[in-house]
Specification:
By secondary structure, this protein is mainly α. The protein has 6 helices and no strands. Helices cover 71% and strands 0% of the residues. 7% of the residues are buried. The model has no long low-confidence stretch (mean pLDDT 77).
Length: 115
């Protein structure tokens, strides 16, 4: 994760995202740098607009919250229709599924590079 943070720092300071700069930021932070990981990150970010990716990632939690709220409202309506069931809230694993989807959408494969 520190490799991605280094890339974000470089992007924020308008510095070029290359292996040398990634290595410099990480070494300044006291990280033992693996050249292959720095090289893989630079290659993965080659055609990525980081500003756009950050904006999309910031918007994703709001969209996920709205989707989860809508699902909860639908579940409540189903409970009202069926009077035989006790008034027990529906406790499904929707939140865990939403988290997995958010992680997959926001990382777009970068997580697989760095575990």
């Amino acid at each position: 994760m520190e490799y991605v943070y280094a890339a974000l720092i470089l992007n924020e300071t308008d510095a070029e995202i290359n292996e040398e700069n990634i290595t410099g930021v990480l070494e300044a932070a006291g990280v033992d740098v693996e050249e292959s990981r720095a090289k893989a990150l630079v290659a993965a970010l080659e055609d990525v607009d980081i500003e756009e990716a950050v904006e999309e990632a910031a918007a994703a939690p709001a969209a996920a919250g709205a989707a989860a709220g809508g699902a909860a409202a639908g579940a409540a309506a189903d409970d009202d229709e069926d009077e035989d069931e006790a008034d027990v809230p529906d406790t499904t694993d929707d939140d865990e599924d939403d988290d997995d989807e958010d992680e997959e959408a926001s990382g777009e494969g970068l997580g697989e590079l760095f575990g």
